[in-house]
Amino acid sequence: MLTRKRHSQTRDDSLSTTYGNRFFTKDxxxxxxxxxxxxxxxxxxxxxxxxxxxxxxSLNLASFVTTWMEPEAECLIRENLRKNxxxxxxxxxxxxxxxxxxxxxxxLFHAPEDGDIAGTSTIGSSExxxxxxxxxxxxxxxxxxxxxxxxxxxxxxxxxxxxxxWDKFARYFDVEMRTVPLSPRRFTLxxxxxxxxxxxxxxxxxxxxxxTFTGQIDPVEELNEAIEKRNKEQGWDVPIHVxxxxxxxxxxxxxxxxxWDFRLSxxxxxxxxxxxxxxxxxxxxxxxxxxxxxxxxxxVFRVNYLGAEEETYTLNFSSNxxxxxxxxxxxLRLGKKGYRSVMENCRTNARFFAGKLSAHGxxxxxxxxxxxxxxxxxxxxxxxxxxxxxxxxxRKYGWIVPAYTLPPDAEKTTLLRVVVRExxxxxxxxxxxxxxxxxxxxLENPPARKKAHPPLC
Length: 457
Known about the structure:
Layout: H1 40-51, H2 71-79, H3 92-108, E1 118-122, H4 125-146, E2 155-159, H5 164-172, E3 176-180, H6 191-196, E4 202-208, H7 220-234, E5 240-243, H8 251-254, E6 267-273, E7 285-289, E8 301-303, E9 310-312, H9 322-360, E10 363-365, E11 374-379, H10 387-395, E12 403-405, E13 414-419, H11 426-444
Parallel strand pairs: 2-3, 2-4, 4-5, 5-6
Antiparallel strand pairs: 1-7, 6-7, 8-9, 10-11, 11-13, 12-13
Helix pairs in contact: 2-9, 3-9, 4-5, 9-11, 10-11
């Protein structure tokens, strides 16, 4: 008698198309590891398709972070993803490249030619700020101990416009945060108010070149003059740390005459984000000190368990070398002329957008001619305060434009922000203006709500 062979419980997917195998119908474990292994092609496709639900990086105008690099740069990044930057005994040329970039940036920021420059790469500007302020705290402690004075109550003076990482530093490292509030008409640091908060326990004063909230620039030169006067009067040595995360790679090319960097005597450290207008994918940042003496030696660790004695001053020991190499590629490839061209395009497009908003009548840009390619704006007239609804409407077209409130004492101000990066074209901004118009129409003429059907008897 003929018997029918039972169908195997294990199906062979080797001849199936990508979406024809059984793994696309299984409830995969996503919060616990599954017992069985899965084919690499299937896992790739499942994750790839899920990530399609993310926003489009090119339409993410909220982000300062680079979303495009040249193919040659991407090739170098792929080739070096396996390299650990800290292992400079094993990868000496990578260490040399980091050293070169630090000196290139020091030259760009006018570090003294006769100085002994110090610096390091970081995961981003947040780590760089933490490290820079930690060095200033340690220098303050060392000076106080040498003078036989207490080191109990260090403080840090900043404006209300600083990034949240400054608050993190104060909380993580037990430093009093003395914040100069903003005002409804002023969104940058008030120098006079900052100086009033400075005393012998101040480890540093912070200044921002390109704030996250509005893209504006703190009056660093004015602050430097006031700090130097106070230091001379009191015999103090209060330094300035400049947060150049957003503007540090723009101003040297667009406004080379503006003094915000090491040309100012009280500026002792600067951080910059390579992955913002440094034009590198995340994450890479840079911290530079005016002089090696500004980095206390007892913060630098020397280890030899990688094969040779190496110095390290980072919060994270291991880090990827690929994005440091990507930064080196850009500095070599573009040069000052190339960076200047990119930044001019970005700012020209930003000013075009701000001008159109101003002429529109319903929108009010914070600056009609922004110094940096960052346009912060708000609604005028009867729709003022409905910026969150505009942001929500724009998401329907794929745009990611953040709506947010400002810090105290400007917390009643709500803004929208567009960061005009390298790949944000004039045509894209024209399209965005059209979608802003349509979003306003929705606010003025909300779609009629459907009447609820009566319940069935």
